[in-house]
């Protein structure tokens, strides 16, 4: 779907796109698909770990070292929440329940794609993050990503008792 998709899964689910991102024969198992929450913010801590460095202690680093997941030593992501922003605006938040395993996503703001019906902003080169370039949702659009990874059917109080 492209990386211009804001907080939608088609643009953020796989760091770096749909092609294999990490290849390291003899260290990482080939053709492994990891269906746990991860983000581009995880690349920095992973590279620091591989280089034998130490993460800065004077600030919060939101990313996680991906090596335990990549090597199969961990089955679950350390991320409980992932926040998806457009510029400085919060557009969506993803919650990976630690006890239940569900992955919920709430969209507060969605970008208006161009041309209408497209999956990104192809005629502009970028999608605005605010103003007339977005639609606000109150209540937010809610999705169960395990049952609806394409975020096609928002849940409601009528369709989701939880």
From TrEMBL:
This is ARSD Arylsulfatase. The lineage of its organism: Eukaryota, Metazoa, Chordata, Craniata, Vertebrata. Keywords: Calcium, Hydrolase, Metal-binding. One of its GO terms (cellular component) is endoplasmic reticulum. SUPFAM superfamilies: Alkaline phosphatase-like. The gene is Arsd_0. GO terms for molecular function: arylsulfatase activity; metal ion binding. Its cofactor is Ca(2+). The keyword Calcium applies. InterPro entries: Alkaline_phosphatase_core_sf, Sulfatase.
């Amino acid at each position: 779907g492209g990386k211009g998709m804001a907080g939608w899964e088609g643009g953020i689910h796989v760091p770096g796109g749909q092609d294999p991102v990490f290849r390291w024969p003899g260290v990482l198992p080939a053709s492994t698909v990891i269906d746990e929450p991860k983000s581009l913010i995880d690349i920095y801590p992973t590279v620091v770990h591989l280089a034998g460095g130490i993460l800065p202690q004077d600030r919060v680093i939101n990313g996680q070292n991906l090596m335990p997941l990549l090597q199969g030593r961990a089955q679950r992501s350390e991320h409980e929440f992932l926040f998806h922003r457009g510029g400085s605006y919060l557009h969506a938040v993803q919650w990976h329940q630690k006890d239940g395993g569900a992955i919920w996503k709430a969209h507060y703001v969605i970008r208006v794609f161009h041309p209408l019906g497209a999956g990104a902003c192809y005629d502009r080169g970028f999608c605005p993050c605010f103003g007339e370039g977005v639609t606000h949702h109150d209540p937010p659009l809610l999705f169960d990503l395990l049952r609806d990874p394409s975020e096609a059917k928002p849940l409601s109080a009528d369709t989701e008792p939880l």
